[in-house]
Structures are given as structure tokens and as C-alpha cells.
Amino acid sequence: MEPTANLLFFFSALGAFNGLVLSLYFMAFARPKHHSNLFLGLLLLALSTRIGKSVFYYFNSELSLVFLQIGLTACAFIGPFLFLYAYANNNGTKSTQKMALVHLAIPLIFLLAGILKYDYTTYFDFWRGPLFRAIYTFWALYVLATGWYLRNTLKKMVLRQSNWVANEKWLVGIYAGNLIICIVFWSVRYTSYIAGALSFSFILYLLALVLLFKSRFPWSPVVPISYGNTKMDADAAKPLIYALNTLMQSDKPYTDANLKMADLAQSLGVSAHKLSQLLNDNMGKSFSDYINHYRIEEAKTLIQNQSALTLEAIGYECGFNSKSTFYSAFKKQSGQTPAQFRKSLP
């Protein structure tokens, strides 16, 4: 290949490879560990697979038809994974699981049909013709459906409203990137087949830069949130409350006896002032009451399952820094002391 072609291949292939690495990170290592990160990882996996196929087919037209089938099959999952990622950001696990069963049914049936009977080699004309158009239409419809689902958040951006939060900005960025990639893939017949891969690489690196330098450079035209003494509205509070509860359940920061509001706020990605406002105004709890709730629930679990541990040891294990504090908080929340709770167990 010529130097220009080598550079083109390197840039586009590197984007696909980095997308695969990021997909693994979000599926296995991202914190807090919950289903929205899982679907973001699966979305990146589907996109990277589709992009990877485009890159290698562009530079090697003799590529095995099996890889072409894999690439188009992955394309059928992009739209549903995008929608499920958006949905998971604002809904609980059970609701998201039910939604996943509905929205992944068609691409899963398509995947199994391609593996078991309708392979690319045997049904070449069908894959290259009507099925190709059907998959791209399916993708585009899901992009539109996701935009409709996010219409209130998108409206905040268009109107430059101040009552949206960091994860909403990130969600809009993910959606906008997918919208651009979808448009580019639909227009390759008028541009270049490699354009989709290049757009994916560019958007991926742009979002990576946002993550790296978000504290130094504002990446959104929206005015930063400044609530002052006003209560955060319910739409803005809902995703934050969900993220906070998920963080508490997955990472268990409350087990740290020295946990401070600033520490928890940093893990959540908001200011201490905003977290305080969320707890007091929107959840009706003080910081200590909220943290102690999780500590007491953890203590109850340990009392039930760890009979060999002393009550004092359980208190320290759950984040209390003294026996008296543990007993006082336990009785305040449950109406009985830890000793009485242990005696009441069957």
C-alpha cells in the first residue's frame, strides 16, 4: 500500500481496535458496575465489529464472506444496544432486563438464522440486497427511536437550559456520535466506503479527549449548573439518584469509616454542594442518615450470615468507627439494638 493508504488503514483500524478495548473496559471493569455500562460496552463491541469489517474489506476485497456476515450481523445490534444504553441510564435493573428481552429479540433471531441456515455464502444476493437494506433501516429506526426517548434531554441542550447533569451530557454525546456514524454509513454510496470507519475513529478519539480533559476544557455549550438555593427538579435528580444508589450498592463506599461527602461526590462526578442538595431536598435525608442506612443494612446481612463475628467487629466492618455509634445508629433505624436483632433471628 502507498503511504497515504497505510496511514488511512492505521487510523481507521486503530479506531476499531480501541473500540474493542473500550468495550471490554465498560463491560468488565467500569465503575459503578451496572447495566448501563454493560450496554455501552456492548454498543462499542457491535460498532467496532462493524467498523473492523469495513476496514479490512476496504483494503482486502477478497476477505472471506464469513467476516462480511459477522459485520452485518453486528450492525443489527447497534441500534438496540444504543436504545438500551439510553434506557438503562434512567431505569432500574428489572425494567431494563425486560426491555432488553423485547428489543434484542429480532437481532438474536437474525443471528441464529444466519448461523443455522441462511449463511452469507449460500444466500449471497439476499445478504447484499434486501437484507442489507433492512439491517440499515432497522439501525436508522432505532437511532430515531432513541432520539425520541431522549427528546427532553435533547431539548435541554438545544434551549441551553442549565438544569441538566453530567451524565446527560455524556449520553447526548454518545447519541450524537451514533447518529453521525449512522448517517455516514447511509451515505457511503456517495462518498467512500471507508468513511464510516474514519468517522467512528474520529468520534471515539473526540470522546476520549473529553474524558481526559473535561476538567480543563468545557465540552458542552450549555451553561454549567448552578442551583444556588433552589431545589433540583425531578427530571435532573432522577438519573443522579439512580447513579448514587447504584454506586452505593456496587462499590460499598459506606464501609469506609472516614467517608466524607466530598469523597462520595467525587466518585459520583458531581460537586459536594450538588450532592448535599440532592440528599436534603430531593431525597429528604441528611448525609449521615443516608450512609448509615446502607451501613445498617450491611450489618443486618452480616449478623444473619456471620454468626462467628462479634457485633463490635461487624460494626467496624460496616464503616462505624465505634461500638456506641454503631449501636445508636442501629437502634435509630431498626428500633432495636444489634444484640436484640441477633436474638430475634430464627
UniProtKB/TrEMBL annotation:
GO molecular function: DNA-binding transcription factor activity; sequence-specific DNA binding
UniProt keyword Repeat, yes or no: no
All copies of domain HTH araC/xylS-type, residue ranges: 242-344
Gene3D superfamilies per the UniProt record, alphabetical: Homeodomain-like (1.10.10.60)
Membrane-spanning parts: 6-26, 65-88, 100-118, 130-150, 170-188, 194-213
Alphabetic keyword roster: DNA-binding, Membrane, Transcription, Transcription regulation, Transmembrane, Transmembrane helix
SUPFAM superfamilies: Homeodomain-like (SSF46689)
InterPro entries: Homeodomain-like_sf (IPR009057), HTH_AraC (IPR018060), HTH_AraC-typ_CS (IPR018062), Tscrpt_reg_AraC-type_HTH (IPR020449)
Pfam name, any one: HTH_18
Tagged with keyword Transcription: yes
Protein name, per record: HTH araC/xylS-type domain-containing protein
Upper classification of the organism: Bacteria, Pseudomonadati, Bacteroidota, Flavobacteriia, Flavobacteriales
